[in-house]
Design a protein that fits this description.
Blueprint lengths: L1 H15 L9 H45 L4 H21 L10 H6 L1 H20 L4 H6 L2 H12 L7 H21 L6 H31 L6 H22 L5 H4 L6 H27 L2 H22 L1
Helix pairs in contact: 2-12, 2-13, 3-5, 3-10, 3-12, 5-9, 5-10, 7-9, 7-13, 8-13, 9-12, 9-13, 12-13
Amino acid sequence: MGIRQTLTSAWSRCSADRSTCFFRKPWQVTILQRLLVPLVHCGAVLLAVLVYSLGSTLYDFLTRLFISQYRYPYLAPLALAQVLLTLLCTVALRALGCVTLQPYSLQLGERLLVPSICSSLQAVLGLWAEANAPSDLFVFMLQLLPLASAGWSHVLGLTKPPSPRITALVTAVTLSALISTGMHGSFTWKPLVYLYAPLSLLLHSLCLSWLAKVGELQRRHAGGQTSPLDLYYTLSVNSSLLLGFLCLLLPNAGQAFSRGSWHSLIFLGYLLGMTVLGALQHLFLALATLYSSPLAAALLHAAKDLALLFYSLLLF
């Protein structure tokens, strides 16, 4: 009771004399907001980059170890498993009432056909790079992803493309990273690497920019009724159909079930970890694209390799 009476009397004195109360002065509240809001935003961005980078590093490690140790080169079924896990979790959350999803729309699916094709092919190429291309060429191309995404944003006519200052800054950072990789990187001479690495860059950057374009069109015409999660759900449905069709076309895709060590708990653990981390990686990139911009998603995806390169430059 003593603490309550003290707080009540303090509040009464503050209300009686507003000129002496700290939180009643508007200019002080404004200064506090101007100081805290940028710090909170910067901390949230750094935390997101850190979590994504750690998850991406663990995903690369598990993928490389899983495919090489168990000799499991069935890339299209692995990419399909990641998409199916996303769909399964999304439908389960909708059934539990945790999220609200619109039914699959054929019109929206047609608009997302191009990013679905790009996303499906790029997922398979990314797995191929982890398994068959121990080279810095894919890292070299990955550093071009922010610049390529900025270019596609201007080509597709996004409402808010990157400003000239941001484009110039991204260009300078990209060129510095490219020079560092070219000087210290070890490149392989496999012909397929030189074909798949630029193709993966093209597909990834086009997927991010086209997805952002469709998000802008939906907000403009649908009045904001289509959420980013609805867009990603539709994208996942399209990708599952495309990857399933790709599995039917590949001659060795049917061996994914017969060649797996399903009796081994380590095999199942690696497979589950790789599938979950891959699905989360695709989800985070899509949400970053829809909520922010393709450039932000590209910088998030390339932040780990850019940070490592500049850290090596400081040590050098």
